[in-house]
Amino acid sequence: MRYYLKDEALIIEGEFEAVSSGLQGGWKKINYIFNHTVNDFDLEEPVDYLRKIAEKYGLKEYFGLLTSVPMDKLSIEKIDDVTVFVTAGVKNPNEKIGTINIIIVIDAVVSGGGMINAVITATEAKTKALIELGHNFTGTNTDAVIVAMTSKGRYYEYAGPMSELGRKIWIGVNKAVKESLLKWD
Q: I need a labelling partner for 67 at 20 to 30 A (CA). Which of 21, 41, 49, 80 fits?
């Protein structure tokens, strides 16, 4: 895996099998993951916009996310074979646009159930971070999660918070969400 910032986008390159709750989400093999800052979130056609961003950067076979959060608020946490990327903004939770985008890259092989469970674990860790920072909500109306595995290295069957992989995801997401939100102060 290689990652870098280009303009207002985080781009992650590699060979992944991934699941995404974002636009054009689902489960597939991809070569790129990106998170792009949008200045005007009143997009009439967000899927078309996402495609244009991918074309602009020459990305094929991708999952992409859109955010209103500037990339200087990006937080990256690496715990062993898990790397977590978070952009978080909660200025208008649940009523207007706010966004917490979470991307998790696991340098390992994860079972199908483990991949889905990783999404749940990430969501629970995000919720706990929000509560620990004094918020009274569990997320915003445009939150998204991507979990990607490299299919190399060790094998994980489970990703619940009590499993080895789940603990890494929990710690990484909880810390990254807090760090990204605290960058607004």
A: 80
